[in-house]
């Protein structure tokens, strides 16, 4: 049996999907209209085309409805970042669809009332709509726009693009992406690069440490051998190994140390011989000195003897003279006495 499930007070001849194409006289979009069906709110936009006969008399209308809630579902399935927003609105500011979960309407006394973007329960969508409205004094003059908006301490990149066609459609598509959405991968790559640089730096430091030890070890051995030679230990030899230049330097050092050792040995032998000659000459000089002293002593004695002899001779002559002088008077007296 057939039965009536429900009744609708619906006059299609007075709906915008019917009246708008007739008024325009060509295919066009109707305004968005709403109604409450038993299956839930219905928000739609109709594309309609009037049909005329040869006398330009209206004979019918072809119309197709687009359920705008399905458009929101389509936007929600787009591959947009979780923090990004895509929403569509009319020039009046009324929401048509969005990629979020915020409702596009509210029901008041069983009547569907569409929401403006500036009244959306989605805080990000509402803030973006208010910024656009303030910057451009409404939505009527918005064209292709690119701008940056700071929301809650984070920068959002917003792109506004009109969606128009030849049949009177004039909507605005707004896409908002927070900086963190596309900077997150860049920041992650930056962190990865930084960690790799730090790891490379650590590896290079470790490699440089061991390389420097490998290079400086022969140099330190050469330095120690040089200090030992400077301290007088000439029996030094450095093993020639490692880097070719340092090996050549070690070989040259060993040759130099050998030559220096031979030179010192030759110098020591020369010094010993010189000391022997000096000792020998000293001994000869000592012997000559003793002989000279003996000669001087003998000479002094001879001189003393000669002086003594001269003194005695002079004394003898003086005594002889005195005696002669005495003898003359004595002889005179003796002669006179005899007479």
Automatic annotation (TrEMBL):
One of its GO terms (cellular component) is plasma membrane. One of its GO terms (molecular function) is phosphorelay sensor kinase activity. The chain crosses the membrane at residues 193-211. GO terms for biological process: chemotaxis. Keywords: Cell membrane, Chemotaxis, Coiled coil, Kinase, Membrane, Transferase, Transmembrane, Transmembrane helix. It is an enzyme of class 2 (transferase). It is found in: Cell membrane. It is a multi-pass membrane protein. Residues 213-265 form the HAMP domain. Pfam families: dCache_1, HAMP. Its EC number is 2.7.13.3. This is histidine kinase. It comes from uncultured Leptolyngbya sp.
């Amino acid at each position: 049996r057939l039965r009536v499930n429900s009744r609708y007070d619906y006059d299609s001849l007075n709906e915008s999907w019917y009246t708008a194409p007739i008024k325009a006289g060509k295919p066009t979009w109707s305004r968005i209209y709403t109604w409450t069906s038993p299956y839930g709110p219905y928000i739609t936009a109709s594309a309609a085309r009037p049909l005329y006969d040869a006398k330009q008399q209206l004979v019918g209308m072809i119309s197709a409805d687009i359920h705008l809630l399905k458009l929101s579902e389509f936007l929600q399935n787009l591959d947009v970042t979780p923090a990004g927003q895509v929403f569509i609105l009319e020039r009046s500011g009324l929401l048509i669809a969005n990629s979020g979960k915020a409702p596009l309407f509210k029901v008041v006394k069983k009547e569907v009332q569409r929401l403006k973007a500036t009244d959306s329960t989605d805080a990000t969508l509402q803030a973006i709509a208010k910024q656009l409205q303030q910057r451009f004094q409404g939505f009527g003059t918005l064209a292709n726009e690119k701008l940056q908006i700071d929301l809650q301490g984070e920068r959002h990149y917003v792109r506004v693009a009109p969606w128009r066609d030849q049949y009177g459609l004039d909507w605005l598509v707004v896409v908002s992406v927070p900086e963190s959405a596309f900077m997150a991968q860049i920041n992650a790559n930056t962190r990865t690069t930084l960690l790799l640089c730090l790891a490379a730096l650590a590896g290079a430091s470790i490699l440089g440490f061991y390389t420097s030890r490998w290079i400086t070890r022969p140099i330190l051995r050469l330095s120690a051998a040089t200090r030992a030679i400077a301290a007088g230990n000439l029996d030094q030899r450095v093993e020639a190994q490692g880097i070719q230049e340092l090996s050549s330097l070690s070989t040259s050092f060993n040759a130099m140390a050998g030559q220096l050792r031979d030179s010192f040995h030759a110098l020591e032998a020369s010094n010993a011989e010189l000391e022997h000659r000096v000792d020998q000459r000293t001994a000869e000089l000592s012997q000559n000195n003793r002989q000279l002293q003996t000669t001087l002593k003998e000479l002094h004695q001879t001189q003393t003897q000669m002086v003594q002899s001269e003194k005695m001779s002079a004394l003898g002559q003086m005594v002889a003279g005195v005696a002669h002088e005495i003898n003359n008077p004595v002889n005179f007296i003796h002669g006179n006495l005899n007479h």
